[in-house]
Amino acid sequence: MAWVNENYATLQDSYLFSQVAHKVAEYSAAHPEKKIIRLGIGDVTLPLAPVVVEAMQRAVAEMGVKETFRGYGPEQGYDFLHEALVKYYAEFGVELESSEIFISDGAKSDCGNITDIFDDANVILVPDPVYPVYLDTNIMRGRKIVFMEGTPENGFLPMPDPAVKADIIYLCSPNNPTGAAYTKAQLKEWVAYARQNDAVILYDAAYEAFIEDGELPRSIFQIEGAKECAIELCSLSKTAGFTGTRCGYTVVPLALKRKTKNGKEMSLNKMWLRRQTTKFNGVPYIVQRGAEAVFTPEGQKQCRENLSYYKENARLIGEALEEKGILYYGGKNSPYIWMQCPNHMKSWEFFDYLLENLGIVGTPGSGFGSRGEGWFRLTAFASREATEEAVARIRKFL
Ligand code: PLP
What separation in Å is there between the alpha carbon of 240 and the centre of ligand 1? Predict the structure, then answer.
């Protein structure tokens, strides 16, 4: 008899995006004449930067020649990409060693896989609302999960509560879905809490490239002492349009050590290396050459142009909401606009209202946790034309 993992039976069905798609399809079928504007999905729409495409084309050509062909690469990524990332981090004052950086096929995989190196007896602290992967991957392990609430009072940036003892802490900054980003002073408090409790912070910086406020940290390692208590997960998906190309990186500092239940001290860097070399065979050479190009001066220039395009979309949406007196967060250092549903509507109620009256699709906040009820996520990833049209409809009809 093969028993299956019973924790899967306790997972809630993930209705969010399928229900959104279902409702939109139903509405389109009933109103084929209506033009629907999609501000729901968190996927990019601009193509890869030309330097990235050229680098990948060169790599493809290399793969077709006996002398330059490459087979299996290092599981943790090629040195050329580690070196590019070491330089990138140095730009915001973080010194890393190549061996602290692990290249992966994206932050989602790493978010899920990192659970492998921690004991299942750990208490997991998860923000609410947040990217649902942190919650589900830990439910799959049967772990105890404690929530910390994001509310308008704390600007959707929950802070440590000394009364709550947690072992693993997920922080997402800038946050999906709220767009809120922690300040250095706030992260300092989290680092202090983690060190006091021998906890580990899993810091998801997938949206760090959207930060424009120079005072805000781009990496948790900008905070003193973070290398002894944090792992950072990052991605090229939103930074450089790699959602379909797939490349991310995780930083596990050499200084990060914790004990087994039996008291044996372990290096988390060595554990993660062991995990990756055992269960993962690396990111394609071609993709890693594309990723390397992102961090060249020309790559940064081209990617930043795309980010500016999205940020202008976010600004336009925010401006219209402000005019309407609607409370919202994010939009400034993030591609997400997190708005309060008008007239005390619930998230799904507002979804229907927006679709039926304005022909705009967004994402109900309740899909990101119970504290997301009454809130709604709009994204800046649509085209400028679609965003301008949406903004005009918001101005006229909301
Ligand atoms: N982390 C956050 C907060 C995200 O919103 C996403 C994607 O939407 C990811 C991680 C996953 O990114 P990737 O495409 O690198 O797997």
Answer: 13
